Amino acid sequence: MLPRRLTWIDATNRDAHSYLVEDDRCLFFGEYFAHQGYEGGYTNNLILNFKIKPSALQKNPARRKYKTGAIREVAECLRNVAGANAAKYTWVPVPPSKAAGDPDYDDRLERTLRAAFDVSVVDIRNVLRQTESTEADHLAGDRLTPEQLSAILDVDTAALAAAPIRERGVILFDDVLTTGKHFKCCKDQLTDRLGNVPVTGLFIARRVPPDVSIEFDVILDGK
Amino acid sequence: MTDLVAQATATADFEQRAVLPARELGAYEALWAQQGTTFKTLADVFREHPGSIPSDFVSESEAKQYSRIALGAIREAGIKHFGIRVDGASEYPLKLHDAQHPVALLYFQGNWDITSSRCVAIVGTREPSPEGVRRAAKLARGFVKSSFTIVSGLAQGIDTAAHEGAIEAGGMTVAVLGTPITAAYPAQNRELQDRIADDFLVISQVPIVRYSRQKAHLNRLFFPERNVTMAALTEATIIVEAGNTSGTLVQARHALQQGRKLFILDSCFRSPDLTWPAKLVEKGAIRVSDFDEIRDRLAP
Question: ipTM, 2 decimals?
Answer without folding.
Answer: 0.92
